[in-house]
Specification:
With about 350 residues, this protein is an alpha/beta fold. It has 13 helices and twelve strands. The strands form two sheets. It has a ten-stranded mixed beta sheet, covered by helices on one side. Strands 11-12 form a two-stranded antiparallel ribbon. The protein is globular. The model has no long low-confidence stretch (mean pLDDT about 95).
Length: about 350
């Protein structure tokens, strides 16, 4: 099936659009990691979250002051605040934090593992003005519970998804971390999500960082990665015109033909370009999934807008990432070292190159 004219046009002008966005650097997504506490014990957790805090987390009062500060410095119509963790529902003072977002007129969304997404909690976040939500579902029952480290987590997440379909924000999607155990379940999972009323599904691979760093069970082989993308390309053709959106996530630069086959929008790592984050202890960075060595300040000591405007050059000019296999790669101008969250500070190189694998097919 030929690519729609509108999509083809977007890809044609994408280099110019990307250059303009990079030059303008308008903050559009602000991730706030309100806690590292979590009610699960996921095998692939990049933050190594636990039930108890390991860092001196911001208090609800500190978050309130920050949320009061934001609309004074940024246009609240342009910025979506995305609440994340850990698991946001595990944050002390969670209700107060939501109240601060609402009181300051901030548009906000949430990323959740779904374990605590009861009907009452869905009504709670809706009452506090939530506009978007992302929920994790990582395979069928056995695969999901294995990856999430807690029996019953699949049933809880699926129930949460159904509650959101019924009463939650209209703008929501489900994300799945694809690994060798759930790769063969994607068709069944697709059918399950469509039956539940989900309209948008994003797939990611598990990258070797955090708890997944040395766990070979979680990493797709090169052949499995090719299998995943071939499956996605085929299913996207079949789903065209149905209103169901299936996309590969922001993870990783792909060869153009594969990028077109598995994404609605061309690859663009927006970390530090349109995306910033405040971590649970106040640290200021770009994407919340990148290494803490790239932290550029703290809202406890620095002015957030000043950090955004004057300390993020490392995220804009990424020539420092041209090391290892990237040093001699002809795609670097377009790829710029791959997504920032794939950078390994210890090895001083990207830990995963989808382009290298897929360009062989």
């Amino acid at each position: 099936m030929a690519e729609p004219v509108s999509s083809a046009f977007k890809r044609l002008i994408h280099p110019a659009y990307k250059a303009l966005e990079t030059k303008a650097r308008v903050l559009r997504y602000l991730f706030v990691e309100i806690t590292q506490r979590c009610n699960l014990s996921c095998l692939h957790c990049g933050s190594d979250c636990t039930r108890d805090a390991r860092l001196e987390e911001l208090t609800p009062e500190e978050w309130r002051r920050f949320f009061e500060y934001l609309p004074r410095k940024f246009d609240r119509r342009e910025v979506l605040v995305v609440v994340t963790g850990g698991e946001p529902f595990c944050a002390p003072g969670f209700d107060d934090i939501l109240g601060s977002l609402k009181q300051n007129g901030l548009a906000w969304g949430m990323v959740t593992n779904g374990f605590t997404l009861t009907e009452a909690n869905v009504h709670k976040v809706v009452a506090h003005g939530i506009v978007s939500m992302t929920i994790s579902l990582d395979g069928l029952r056995r695969s999901h519970d294995w990856l999430r480290g807690r029996e019953g987590s699949f049933e809880r997440a699926l129930a949460g998804i159904k509650h959101v379909v019924a009463t939650g924000p209209a703008n929501f999607d489900v994300v799945t971390c694809v690994n060798p155990r759930n790769l063969g379940e994607l068709d069944a999972l697709l059918a399950l999500l469509r039956e539940a009323g989900v309209l948008a599904w994003r797939l990611f691979c598990i990258f070797p960082k955090g708890r997944a760093r040395h766990n070979a069970e979680l990493k797709l082989s090169d052949d499995q990665l090719r299998e995943l993308f071939a499956w996605m390309a085929k299913r996207r053709r079949e789903l065209a015109g149905t209103g169901f959106a299936l996309n590969f996530g922001c993870e990783g630069y792909l060869p153009p033909r594969w990028d077109r086959a598995v994404r609605d929008q061309p690859y663009f790592c927006r970390a530090g370009i349109n995306i910033a984050s405040v971590l649970c202890d106040g640290a200021i960075c770009a994407c919340p999934n990148i290494t803490r060595t790239l932290v550029q300040g703290s809202i406890r000591a620095d002015d957030f807008k000043d950090v955004w405007e004057n300390r993020f050059q490392k995220f804009v000019d990424r020539r420092w990432m041209k090391t290892g296999q990237c040093a001699s790669c002809g795609e670097f101008r377009r790829c710029q070292g791959n997504s920032l969250h794939l950078w390994d500070d210890e090895a001083q190189r990207t830990v995963l190159c989808h382009h290298q694998v897929l360009s062989k097919t």
